[in-house]
Amino acid sequence: MGVQVGIVGKPNVGKSTFFAAATLSPVETADYPFTTVDPNQGVAHVRTECPCKAFGVECQPRNSSCIDGNRFVPVELIDVAGLVPGAHEGRGLGNKFLDDLRQASVLIHVVDVSGSTDEEGRPCDPGTREPAEDVRFLERELDEWIAGILRRDWDRTAKRASLEKIPAAEVLRERLAGIGVSASDVESAMERAEVPSDLTKWSDEDIRRFAREVRRVNKPMVIAANKIDVECAEENLKRLEEEVEYPVVPTCAEAELALRRAADQGLIRYLPGDSDFEILQEEKLSDEQLQALEFIREKVLKRWGSTGVQEALNRAVFDVAKMIVVYPVENENKLSDSEGRVLPDALLLPEGTMVRELAYNIHTEIGESFNRAILVKPDGSREVVGEDHELEHGDVVKIQTS
Ligand SMILES: Nc1nc2c(ncn2[C@@H]2O[C@H](COP(=O)(O)OP(=O)(O)OP(=O)(O)O)[C@@H](O)[C@H]2O)c(=O)[nH]1
Predict the structure, then answer these.
(1) Domain boundary among 283, 318, 353
(2) Which residues cross the membrane (predicted)?
(3) What's the gap in Å between 253 CA and the centre of ligand 1?
(4) Cys staple from 332: which of 68, 201, 398, 399, with CB 3.0 to 4.6 Å?
(5) Cα–Cα distance between 277 and 105 in angstroms, integer?
(6) For residues 364 and 381, is the Cβ–Cβ distance under 8 A?
(7) Residues 102 and 224 in one domain
């Protein structure tokens, strides 16, 4: 389980800056549940309030980190480089682009909201490129990619399915399994696209419409409206928000990278997602650096509330991929594991996860011998729940086995 967040965008919009900022963590997590082997993979964190605050305890995280009552939970980040017109046909990085894309369960689409990069990523005068066009362009590339997979050998496949009476949904699911499309994704896409149940009756327009709906359920996204610090970005942002169907988060990736680097060097105190920072070692900062920090404070943090990078990650994981964080414990009195570590693990699980699934997620044996679960509340009260109880974000839960 877990969630892979893909960072995608045409060249020069600030994708690498976003990726570098997001993966420069204020904390090292010793034990996260995935390995990153490619240079374009990294570990980012979502930020959520740690229950240690409400419970008034000191936590000792193992698979995540806690700073000042903020729990940082690792997620895998993939830099999906190579989005250029025609990427779905193998232009640019082509197949590598599609491979990376395949793995992403949610996308952060970085666009240059100042409108100063053209379709191919070449600089142009600020305001001349309409940011919503970038969104349409990525949608087209994704739709064509999915439609291309469907079209391969379509007629024969459709005929065979019809002869052998294999349900359309099954054929389609099999076709798209390689890009992580589930049976329920296929069903809801078929319904939304209103396509015939007999594949031999599909027109190319049906394939297109269906591909579009598959993209909408399978590659949901958040737009990072980057370079929000540049003049004319604000006006573009308003239009962008009106024109697209996705959450739009104004970001200044460059500011986030500068702040994380300064914090990393101990020059300032700043946590990703904060609305301000505190200078710790003014004597070590040059006038230029001080000016840059002041610019960030005035033009970005005060105006927008944060640099937006952490918010984009949080919204992608919590709002769009619909994940929650749950804290399993073995000792419900001490809120600890068997070694006495308090609130050791923060698990990212899909919304709607039932207690039984959590038990299996911890260990098959625990799932098999599940008896009941105890939800521990900050006011000291307990709630005993059965296996089909749905967990909620922030739950601290003890699984009892028989
Ligand atoms: N003003 C401003 N500039 C930014 C911001 N983020 C990135 N940039 C600048 O935009 C330029 C492109 O940034 P990159 O991160 O290299 O862009 P990219 O999308 O990864 O580009 P490729 O590596 O070519 O794919 C660089 O000069 C960055 O410094 C931002 O938030 N505001």
Answers:
(1) 318
(2) none
(3) 8
(4) 398
(5) 32
(6) no
(7) yes
